[in-house]
Write a structure and sequence with these properties.
Pfam families: ABC_tran (PF00005). By secondary structure, the protein is an alpha/beta fold. It is built from ten helices and ten strands. Helix 4 packs across helix 5 and helix 9 crosses helix 10. The chain binds adenosine-5'-triphosphate.
Length: about 250
């Protein structure tokens, strides 16, 4: 089973070490993500989740170990085009409209012509911004910016989605819609790495990695993590593994 997973792995993180100055922020982290798998990362603030996802998305350099995405050692600029990355801080152009942001990023990703128009239309619907598409992003709320960032990450139909707390500031109804879309993409074979503090989101992941002080302290299906710790919730399981409140 495990060897099949490694064979199918689209992301392989091997003994990853990251430091900022002398401080070790990721400490010998290893795991894989399979095709069509949703892997969730849980951990307290400052535990290293963002640093980890940034490294996989090739935004950050690393000092030890290696990260392979689709078999290529990262950072690899050809592979970046096959990843959709939604960062915690929005990477949007605030003086452009929502629509023009999407046009800009579509151009960057090589999504052109009729396809571009269709894709932008679909994504604006998905993130419920069609009515606000002609407004400059600087007039958007925090949640609207998150929604636009998700649309940007999905534009080029990436094989791997890396989402850093994508549902912060998103109302519960839209959050459900986002998850419906993540599960639909998963069915199509898209692999998703997602960080979250929301426990009902964690429950929807195929596997969860629990991170504390830069170490992966547990990795398994939500059911397995609860079973192993004899707990009823992921939150309790995490505490039992020695984490603190996520
Ligand atoms: N560029 C940087 N330079 C120095 N230290 C950094 C840098 N980026 C992150 N850190 C530190 O690395 C540690 C891990 O940060 P990271 O943002 O990865 O945590 P996190 O688990 O994503 O937290 P949160 O849940 O609050 O987003 C923190 O102590 C943070 O202060």
């Amino acid at each position: 089973m495990e060897s099949k997973r490694v064979q199918d792995a689209v992301v392989e993180v091997r003994h990853l070490v990251q430091k900022f100055g002398k401080r070790v922020v990721l400490d010998d982290v290893s795991f894989t993500i399979g095709r069509g798998e949703i892997l969730g990362l849980l951990g307290p603030s400052g535990s290293g989740k963002t640093t980890l996802v940034k490294t996989i998305a090739a935004v950050g350099e690393y000092v030890g170990g290696e990260v392979l995405v689709l078999g290529r050692k990262m950072p690899d600029y050809g592979t970046i085009a096959r990843i959709g990355y939604m960062a915690q801080a929005d990477a949007l152009y605030h003086d452009l409209t929502g629509y023009d942001n999407l046009v800009f990023f579509a151009e960057l990703f090589g999504v052109k012509g009729a396809k571009r128009k269709q894709r932008i239309g679909e994504l604006l619907e998905l993130v419920q911004l069609s009515e606000h598409a002609k407004r400059p992003v600087q007039t958007y709320s925090g949640g609207m910016k998150r929604r636009l960032s998700l649309a940007v990450a999905l534009l080029h139909e990436p094989e791997i989605l890396i989402l850093d707390e994508p549902t912060v500031g998103i109302d519960p109804v839209l959050r459900k819609d986002f998850w419906r879309e993540f599960l639909r993409l998963k069915e199509q074979g898209v692999s998703i790495l997602i960080t979250t503090h929301v426990m009902d989101e964690a429950e929807q992941c195929d596997r969860l990695g629990l991170i504390r002080e830069g170490k992966l302290i547990a990795l398994g299906t939500p059911a397995r993590l609860k079973e192993e710790t004899g707990t009823a919730t992921i939150e309790e399981a995490f505490l039992r593994y020695g984490g603190v409140q996520a």
